[in-house]
């Protein structure tokens, strides 16, 4: 008994699973595949696939190489490869015997090694020749081309299935490689083509054997249910939103991204080169207290740009003031301090005037073109601040000495001493930050150009707390010396607040208008600015949003032009009327308007790192005199100052919105599309019965000319469609006859027509050809099409078990 | 009952006779038309019937009615533990007068044999019936004696009476074509029974058979010629193989069982007035046909059959 059962099981393993599903025809076919002719056909088909697959990456490599290399040499190489491959193919055919023997003859076999050698040596020889000619081929390209030739050799020169597979693997690797090194958008198309052909090859060459164990029917499972589908779509969309905008120009400079870069936020590989080479290194080692080259050429011939020079060159000179004008422009209580500042001119000017002459011709800078003032390794499109002014009297910006000079506090981080500025907030591990390396080349100032909210600085091997401090306006500096030694490399890490923080209602400290009102000077421009601010800023939203609205008006409606003369007594007024001016006027206007809406703002001067300024070859962004820039900072309630960029043409500060904020914005921008699409979808789904019904009837009407059996099949398909639509599908274990009769139930006319139809169908299909087409079934079928509608199925409910039909 | 027949049978007279047979049997056994239809199919398929039911549900009445409707001879054996094989088959008796052995035929030599409570007799006696059922002949003292061509066995077994019961061996079960449960009639039928009991006797008249034995024989011969389409045969084989691989079935359908199944489907098609078998016919006769020959390790046989029928795809109209 148990033996019988076991036997039954063991043969049953092939029973329903295999034997029942493999129809006699397919068994014959699989047996038939083993004949020599069919094996040959299969091999030649697979070889054709392999040859095509190997050719695609070869073409891609040639496309990449063609613009760089000598055309005729490349053509020669390609021709050699094609000729060798062709010769090898003909030789292979002659070896395989058959009709092609006449072409190759017996000599075909003898020539095979020669063709193979030609194929393999074409690329290396071409590479050598190109060096000799003077248009060298990159060694990597020669190697890759040889690899491609190898794939072609395997595909063309061998009948072995293993070699063909190896050729496909090789060409696949090559395709992947060429696509990844090419920035041509067409290369993606080549990749898709390769994958498509490879898939076809797998389907025709391998997967056709699987059909024996394929399930005969596949039931729709939970995996493709609408909810799952929606969840999947939502997941993909969310992922898209999350990575949106993450691949900007600055991203490649995020250290630590590549495993080989080795850097992190505290130690950048960019600073590996230290203070330079040769004499500079020796000087730096011997004089550790200065760590800069003290006797270099650069130092002796002072070509450094002082800040005064920079802004005078780029924005134009300030007009000469007489003594009384100077006196008026200063606050009485600041006079002495200002005097002291003036005596230390290397700390920067005590004031910044918005009145400017037309800048001198740029021609006098021709001799310094290419000479960077500072170099920056880090994100581009950012501003490096040097000086800040917070009081505006209508013409000049001055500083109110709210803060005194402070020193930075040292702290050890991973064995290195970093100097922290407590005013910029603590660096938290989860928050966003900007890190960069600044190399001072010829800057005549003790102020360190640094990104906003620079929290920590570090100079390698320098552990002197007295080297680092902040000026009264909050800018970083190296006090106690006349200037930052040239070639000093300073690493810095800056906080970058998330956009969400700025958008909070209480993010920005309020300041009443009276507090910020100017003591004297031209007020027409300021009044105009305040008027515009209240008009442009609107009422709604947080202070930041209102300021952003103002800034966006400035950025879109005003023209940036540094060559404009603003010698008027009220430059701001002129600027607002003409809507044209230099970045100092944009910044002034934005700062005044910011104050008008109750924000605490200040003017910042410094450098702008152009977005496209990063020189990949040099490994840094060179910042020259032409990159000086003026912008605005606004004070947040917690004391941090964040940048605002009012000048068109300069990148706005990149405050990263959180994923939640981005999702909200995305939803706000795109909500109509899903809503409309969803409404349409819902409408379509709700009215699907109508559409499907129209479609089914149309099909039935069009099927009239067809043979009885085709229409029979169509009718059953049609009815089963309706049943599925009504959610009462036929289970496959119930015969169609039983199912129809059970659905028709005891409803007289429909049940009778059903019975008529099923009888006729039985006769046609299972009658063994003994009966001709039964009359009247067409009428019954037409009747069923019009009466057994989806609604009918729905009202009939679930069909009862097949046995209940009597 | 709504029959599936729409076109008249090839032989209208035979159709009428079948109708009459149906009517008469239904008059005896009220409210059991579906079972009666299967019994007739079993008869046409030249099979034997096993009734598995409680006492007093009309088993004997049915057997008697069938015998009467055919105008044939009915024999009844009450199977008890002391029943001997010769009590069933008959035996040779030495006639003192003629000084010769004389054969006294047993009940198997009837046209319709009712073996009551078959599982209460010994396996030895049970197996005596084997040859009679399968070969339609008995061999006594090395002499083979043919039984009637239309020989029809209706055996009953009592499910609740397990004391002193000898369960029927698989070999014997496989020789039955169907196993039916008559079950209690519904309320309306029971009222009908009560009414009929006060009136005239509904037992068919033996002298006016609905279907003569010779007519039955020709009908039985006709059943074998009913067309079974290859796709229907495919379906049948799929079903049979499914019974062999089903995890809760100990013993699947044998090739003989498969033949019985096909024959039963053919007979059913004849009853519907069709010269060919449809997949529905196969499904309709599946339950009683499989019930007799499937041995399950767990679960009710009926549930397992439903499971198998539901799992195997039926051939579609195409």
Task: Kindly describe this structure.
The complex is a heterodimer of chains A (806) and B (318). By secondary structure, chain A is of the alpha+beta class. Helices cover 49% and strands 11% of the residues of chain A. Chain A is built from 30 helices and 22 strands. The longest helix of chain A has 30 residues. Chain A is flat. In chain A, 37% of the residues are buried. In chain B, the strands form five sheets. In chain B, strands 2-5-8-1-9 form a five-stranded parallel sheet. In chain B, strands 3-4 form a two-stranded antiparallel ribbon. In chain B, α1 runs antiparallel to α3, α8 packs across α10 and α10 crosses α11. Chain B is globular, with a radius of gyration of 20 Å. In chain B, 48% of the residues are buried. At the A-B interface, α1, α2, α26, α27 and α28 of A face α9, β12, α11 and α12 of B.
Rg of chain B from C-alpha positions?
A: 20 Å
Taken as a percent bin, the fraction of beta residues of chain B is: 15-25%
Mean model confidence by pLDDT of chain A: 75
- In which order are the strands of the major sheet of chain B placed? 2-5-8-1-9
Order of helices and strands of chain B: HHEHEHEEEHEEEHEHHEHEHEHEH
How far the N terminus sits from the C terminus of chain B, by CA atoms, comes to 30 Å
How far apart are the first and last residues' alpha carbons of chain A, in Å?
38 Å
Main sheet characteristics of chain B: 5 strands, parallel
Q: Please tell me what the overall shape of chain B is.
A: globular
> Count of helical segments of chain A?
30
Poorly predicted runs of chain B are 1-9
Roughly what is the average pLDDT of chain B, rounded to an integer?
A: 85
Of all chain pairs, the largest interface belongs to:
A-B, 43 and 40 residues
Low-confidence segments of chain A: 1-35, 95-105, 248-278, 287-301, 327-332, 338-345, 362-369, 799-806
Strand % of chain A is 5-15%
Structural class of chain B: alpha/beta
Mind describing the biggest β-sheet of chain A? 8 strands, antiparallel
């Amino acid at each position: 008994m148990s033996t019988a059962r076991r036997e039954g099981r063991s043969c049953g393993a092939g029973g329903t699973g295999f034997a029942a599903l493999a129809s006699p025809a397919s068994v014959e076919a699989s047996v038939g595949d083993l004949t020599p002719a069919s094996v040959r056909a299969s091999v030649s088909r697979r070889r054709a696939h392999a040859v095509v697959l190997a050719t695609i990456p070869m073409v891609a490599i040639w496309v990449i190489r063609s613009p760089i290399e000598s055309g005729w040499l490349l053509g020669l190489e390609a021709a050699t490869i094609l000729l060798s491959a062709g010769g090898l193919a003909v030789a292979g055919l002659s070896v395989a015997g058959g009709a092609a023997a006449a072409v190759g003859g017996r000599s075909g076999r003898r020539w095979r090694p020669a063709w193979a050698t030609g194929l393999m040596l074409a690329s290396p020889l071409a590479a050598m020749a190109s060096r000799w000619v003077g248009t060298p081929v990159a060694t990597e390209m020669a190697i890759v081309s040889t690899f491609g030739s190898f794939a072609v050799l395997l595909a063309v020169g061998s009948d072995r299935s293993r070699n063909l597979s190896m050729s496909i693997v090789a060409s696949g690797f090559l395709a992947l490689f060429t696509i990844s090194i090419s920035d041509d958008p067409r290369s993606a198309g080549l990749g898709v083509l390769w994958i498509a052909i490879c898939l076809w090859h797998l389907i025709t060459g391998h997967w056709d054997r699987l059909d024996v164990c394929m399930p005969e029917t596949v039931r729709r499972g939970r995996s493709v249910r609408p909810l799952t589908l929606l969840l999947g779509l939502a997941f993909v969309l969310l992922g898209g939103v999350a990575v949106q905008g993450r691949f900007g120009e600055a991203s490649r400079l995020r250290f630590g991204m590549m495993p080989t870069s080795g850097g992190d936020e505290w130690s950048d590989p960019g600073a590996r080169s230290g203070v330079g080479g040769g004499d500079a290194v020796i000087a730096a080692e011997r004089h550790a207290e200065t760590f800069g080259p003290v006797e270099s050429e650069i130092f002796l011939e002072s070509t450094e740009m002082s800040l005064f020079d920079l802004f005078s060159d780029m924005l134009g000179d300030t007009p000469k003031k007489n003594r009384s004008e100077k006196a008026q422009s200063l606050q009485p209580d600041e006079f002495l301090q200002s005097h002291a500042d003036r005596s230390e001119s290397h700390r920067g000017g005590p004031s910044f005037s918005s009145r400017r002459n037309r800048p001198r011709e740029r021609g006098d800078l021709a001799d310094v073109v290419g000479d960077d003032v500072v170099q920056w390794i880090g994100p581009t499109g950012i501003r490096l601040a040097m000086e800040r002014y917070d009081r505006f009297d209508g013409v000049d910006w001055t500083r109110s000495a709210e803060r005194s000079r402070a020193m930075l506090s040292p702290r050890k981080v991973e064995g290195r001493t970093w100097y922290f500025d407590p005013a910029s907030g603590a660096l938290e591990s989860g928050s966003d930050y900007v890190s960069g390396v600044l190399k001072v080349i010829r800057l005549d100032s003790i102020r360190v150009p640094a990104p906003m909210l620079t929290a920590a600085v570090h100079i390698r091997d320098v552990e002197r707390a007295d080297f680092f401090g902040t000026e009264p306006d909050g800018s970083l500096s190296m006090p106690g010396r006349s200037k930052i030694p040239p070639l000093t490399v300073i690493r810095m890490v800056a906080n970058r607040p998330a956009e969400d923080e700025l958008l909070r209602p209480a993010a920005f400290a309020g300041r009443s208008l009276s507090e910020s009102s100017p003591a004297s000077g031209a007020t027409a421009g300021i009044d105009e600015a305040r008027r515009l601010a209240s008009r442009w800023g609107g009422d709604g939203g947080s202070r930041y949003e209102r300021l952003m609205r103002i800034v966006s008006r400035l950025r879109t409606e005003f023209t940036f032009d540094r060559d404009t003369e603003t010698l008027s007594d009220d430059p701001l007024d002129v600027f607002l009327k003409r809507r044209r001016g230099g970045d100092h006027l944009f910044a002034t206007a934005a700062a005044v308007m910011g104050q008008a809406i109750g924000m605490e703002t200040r003017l910042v001067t410094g450098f702008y790192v152009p977005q496209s300024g990063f020189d990949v070859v040099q490994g840094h962004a060179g910042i020259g005199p032409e990159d000086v820039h003026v912008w605005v900072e606004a004070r947040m309630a917690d004391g941090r100052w964040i940048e605002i960029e009012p000048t068109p043409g300069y990148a706005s500060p990149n405050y990263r919105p959180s994923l939640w904020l981005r999702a909200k914005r995305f939803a706000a921008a795109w909500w109509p599309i899903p809503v409309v699409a969803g409404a349409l979808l819902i409408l379509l789904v709700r009215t699907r019965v109508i559409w499907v019904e129209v479609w089914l009837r149309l099909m039935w009407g069009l099927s009239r000319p067809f043979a009885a059996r085709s229409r029979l099949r169509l009718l059953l398909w049609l009815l089963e469609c309706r049943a599925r639509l009504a959610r009462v599908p036929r289970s496959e274990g119930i015969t169609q006859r039983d199912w129809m009769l059970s659905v028709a139930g005891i409803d007289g006319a429909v049940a009778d027509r059903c019975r008529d139809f099923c009888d006729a169908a039985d006769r046609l299909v299972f009658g063994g050809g003994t009966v001709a087409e039964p009359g009247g079934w067409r009428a019954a079928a037409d009747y069923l099409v019009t009466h057994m509608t989806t609604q009918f199925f729905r009202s009939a409910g679930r069909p009862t078990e097949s046995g209940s039909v009597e | 009952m709504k029959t599936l027949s729409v076109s008249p049978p090839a032989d209208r007279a035979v159709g009428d006779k079948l109708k009459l047979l149906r009517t008469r049997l239904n008059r005896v056994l009220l409210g059991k038309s579906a079972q009666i239809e299967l019994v007739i199919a079993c008869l046409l398929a030249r099979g034997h019937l096993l009734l598995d039911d409680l006492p007093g549900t009309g088993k004997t009445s049915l057997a008697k009615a069938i015998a009467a409707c055919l105008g044939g001879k009915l024999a009844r054996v009450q199977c008890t533990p002391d029943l001997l094989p010769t009590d069933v088959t008959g035996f040779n008796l030495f006639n003192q007068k003629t000084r010769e052995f004389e054969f006294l035929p047993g009940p198997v030599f009837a046209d319709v044999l009712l073996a009551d409570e078959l599982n209460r007799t010994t396996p030895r006696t049970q197996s005596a019936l084997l040859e009679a059922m399968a070969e339609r002949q008995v061999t006594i003292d090395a002499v083979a004696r043919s039984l009637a061509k239309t020989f029809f066995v209706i055996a009953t077994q009592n499910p609740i009476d397990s004391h002193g019961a000898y369960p029927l061996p698989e070999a014997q079960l496989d020789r039955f074509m169907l196993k039916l449960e008559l079950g209690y009639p519904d309320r309306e039928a029971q009222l009908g029974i009560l009414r009929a009991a006060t009136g005239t006797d509904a037992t068919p008249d033996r002298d006016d058979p609905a279907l003569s034995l010779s007519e039955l024989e020709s009908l039985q011969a006709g059943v074998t010629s009913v067309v079974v389409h290859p796709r229907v045969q495919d379906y049948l084989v799929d079903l049979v193989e499914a019974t062999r691989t089903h995890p809760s079935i100990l013993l699947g359908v044998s090739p003989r069982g498969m033949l019985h199944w096909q024959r039963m489907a053919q007979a059913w098609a004849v009853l519907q007035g069709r010269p060919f078998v449809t997949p529905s016919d196969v499904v309709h006769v599946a339950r009683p046909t499989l019930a007799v020959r499937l041995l399950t390790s767990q679960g009710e046989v009926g549930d397992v059959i439903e499971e198998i029928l539901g799992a195997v795809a039926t051939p579609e109209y195409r």
